[in-house]
Amino acid sequence: MDIRKLIKVNIVNIAILGLIVVFKLVTGMLFDDHSSAESSMAMMTNFITVLLLLGWAGYTIFSNLTVIKEDKNEEKKHLAGIRTRVLRAGNQKFFVKERTHLVNMWDSMMSREKYFLSDERDERVRELYILTRNQMERYVTDSCEYLESFDYISGKDSGYLRGACAEAQNMLDKFNKMVELSVSVDDEVMSYDTREMDDMIEALEELKKSGKNKLAR
Which of 44, 68, 101, 148 is 20 to 30 A away from residue 138, measured at CA? Predict the structure, then answer.
């Protein structure tokens, strides 16, 4: 989520609320119920103030939801663009097998996003999915950078992509194993030893703090 944009939007909302408060204070001083005319004007300004507050509340909700929705749309575009980048990075005639492998692993993660991020899933399963997906994104992004910077004229393959694919596949296999342990046929969390899942989450958290292949975002 773009916290800065959210803060800016709400600063504007607070400023608008301040203007409404000032309007109410000024009109309250001008129409001080000393006569029937002023009393009528006071009632009118109160009515206007209520309308302004209702409008402000509606706008505040709308503006915040817009920022949140915009952020989600941008994230979806970003995640969708990762797949395209793998296929188009560098000379597309080279490293065809590795590209296909990376795309298949990425598709494997993304195809199950809705399931694992559902509120019905166990919290640790959701956490494990997000950490694994982000680490997969790091593997794919690093691989794309390698493909884009590789010397296709005179360069020699160092085996970097094969290594990245192997590491990513190993991580994906562990993730799938954890899922099998945590989810039963009827979709309810089983009673099982959670140490393996906790160890994997801890390992991914360490990768998040490390240098190369650290978790994206």
Answer: 68
Nearest to 103 by CA among 133, 82, 130, 131: 82
- The residues, ordered by sequence, that sit 6+ positions from 197 with a Cβ below 8 Å of its Cβ are 124, 128, 178, 181, 182
Model confidence, pTM: 0.60
| Nearest-5° Cα angle at 163, 158 to 168 | 150
pLDDT in tens, the chain (217 residues): 567 777 888 888 899 888 888 888 887 776 665 555 566 777 788 888 888 888 989 888 888 877 776 666 666 777 778 889 999 999 999 999 999 999 999 999 998 888 888 887 778 788 888 889 999 999 999 999 999 999 998 888 889 999 999 999 999 998 888 777 766 544 444 444 556 667 777 777 777 776 555 444 4
Q: How far apart are CA 153 and CA 104, in angstroms?
A: 28
In terms of C-beta distances under 8 Å and separation of at least 24 residues, what long-range contacts does 139-143 make, across chains too?
Answer: 139/102, 139/164, 139/167, 139/168, 139/171, 139/213, 140/82, 140/85, 140/86, 140/102, 140/105, 140/106, 140/168, 141/82, 141/85, 141/216, 142/212, 142/213, 143/86, 143/89, 143/98, 143/102
Contact residues for 140 (Cβ-Cβ < 8 A; gap 6+) = 82, 85, 86, 102, 105, 106, 168
Structure tokens at 195: 């140490």
